[in-house]
Procollagen galactosyltransferase 1
Amino acid sequence: MNISYSLNSDYSLINMLKPITKRCAIKIYISFLIILLISLSLCLRLLFNHSEDLNLQKESKPSNRTLGFDRIFVVHLDRRTDRRERLNEIASYHGLEFDYISAITKDDEQILRKYGSADMSPSQKACYLSHYFIYKQIIDRGYNSVLILEDDADFELNITAAMADIHRDLPASWEMLYVGHCFEGVGGQVGKGSQVHRLHKSVFPMCTHAYAVSHSGARKLINLIDPLIPRGTVDYSIAVIIKEGKIASYSVHPQLIVQWGDPSDIPNSQALTFHLLNSTLHFLGYNRT
Ligand SMILES: *[C@@H]1O[C@H](CO)[C@@H](O)[C@H](O)[C@H]1NC(C)=O
Ligand SMILES: *[C@@H]1O[C@H](CO)[C@@H](O)[C@H](O)[C@H]1NC(C)=O
Ligand SMILES: *[C@@H]1O[C@H](CO)[C@@H](O)[C@H](O)[C@H]1NC(C)=O
């Protein structure tokens, strides 16, 4: 009796416990599910963020579409729609991507007055500031390298192949690269340069119609060519710091991008034409007037 009782009571105890363990198991199961769901959603979010990062990187990855730089910025006077059309034709022929950046003009009097007293015409000041603000954008947007063009540009017909060779020779420590220039002497050659267009050390490159700036180059330019204390026009001010050895600069000879040579938007500066071997604009049917 005693035994059976105790057995019985044990049995009833087990019976009493059973629903509790069951409930417990369900609770554990549910919490496990919740934890699983939370970690799964965390994982997904991480993955998603990661792919967003990858997309961002892809957006500004150097490629042939940007001639091996993160971006190609075109300093553009909004009213010159003729120039924009011409550049769009060049872009579609070469498969290039341009970012048009509105230039500061001589009519932006407020900005010009702020940067004031320098002995330059309003157009020259506007040009100076347009380029200077681009260096700030390069830093703000975190680009490693940007090719800066003015909107009056003509390209060598095989520029993509030629630039691929130039990038092979370009030292990792480069800060500026003149793809086009005016009155530039031929400095010492850099790299193997098997083709016609070769990389050289810069001497005193003038003009700003086609030059690339690296991230570190942009930082230096912001400090070294302060528009509050200019040494002259923007191209001259940069050429001076290159000559002083304060920034690592290279030039391509013969140049791959020239000014097409419209009457210049900057009065007092002669319209300069330096010739390409094979002009893209000629190829596309344009003729200089
Ligand atoms: C970029 O252009 C060069 C020269 O034309 C070519 O050799 C290379 O394969 C191109 N790269 C890509 C990714 O298309
Ligand atoms: C580009 O074209 C020029 C002129 O036709 C030629 O001399 C040069 O070898 C070419 N460069 C490349 C990399 O194909
Ligand atoms: C470039 O010009 C040279 C000489 O004018 C010509 O022989 C060559 O075929 C041209 N190259 C291209 C890619 O049109």
Q: What stands out?
A: The helical segments are 2-59, 81-94, 109-114, 122-140, 159-169, 215-224, 234-243, 280-283.
